[in-house]
What does this fold into?
Amino acid sequence: DADVTQTPRNRITKTGKRIMLECSQTKGHDRMYWYRQDPGLGLRLIYYSFDVKDINKGEISDGYSVSRQAQAKFSLSLESAIPNQTALYFCATSAVVGQPQHFGDGTRLSIL
Amino acid sequence: EDKVVQSPLSLVVHEGDTVTLNCSYEVTNFRSLLWYKQEKKAPTFLFMLTSSGIEKKSGRLSSILDKKELFSILNITATQTGDSAIYLCAVGKVVNFNKFYFGSGTKLNVKP
It folds into this structure.
């Protein structure tokens, strides 16, 4: 089983819909992250969390919200999806400061 | 503004060739530089570099960091078709959270 699991793997939806992407991990890591990847732009940080009481905005948080329901679960919501949020979304975890992040397999989101 | 730039953006080689991928950065309070390989799914960790001039090696892959000139290179010798992937560079800062700045990646295509 994957250490970092994202659901769904693929999603196509319409403009204006509310969407939730979910991430769960079995690595026991405190730190969790949401990134989006667009062609030619690399990975950009949306939100990150160091524990269930800690939520921080990344560089592109507008239009997104997150919830850290438990140490192992971190969900990303698009309240009213728009086409320029079409991207590949990754969840990642890390154990301690400075250590490499472990990524899920990604959710490919298309907004029509 | 913190910046990580990778070059080339894409590269096509034939099996057996040696390739060098570049990552330059302008990041205040530099802590570490990481290389990831991304095939069809999640980025997977390759190397973490924190000190100048010390080569990290894993099989046919090696990497080195120059903190004076603010760049790193990733070398792949005797390339194989399985090396085809996007190679991502990420830079971490000396701050109290695990936040990384990613480059846009180099897409490597190794032809038989």
Summary: The mean pLDDT of chain B is 93. Chain B touches chain A at residues 4, 6, 9, 31-32, 34, 36, 41-45, 48, 88, 90, 92, 96-100, 102-105 (CB under 8 Å). The CA atoms of residues 24 and 71 of chain B lie 4 Å apart. The first strand of chain B starts at residue 3 and ends at 7.
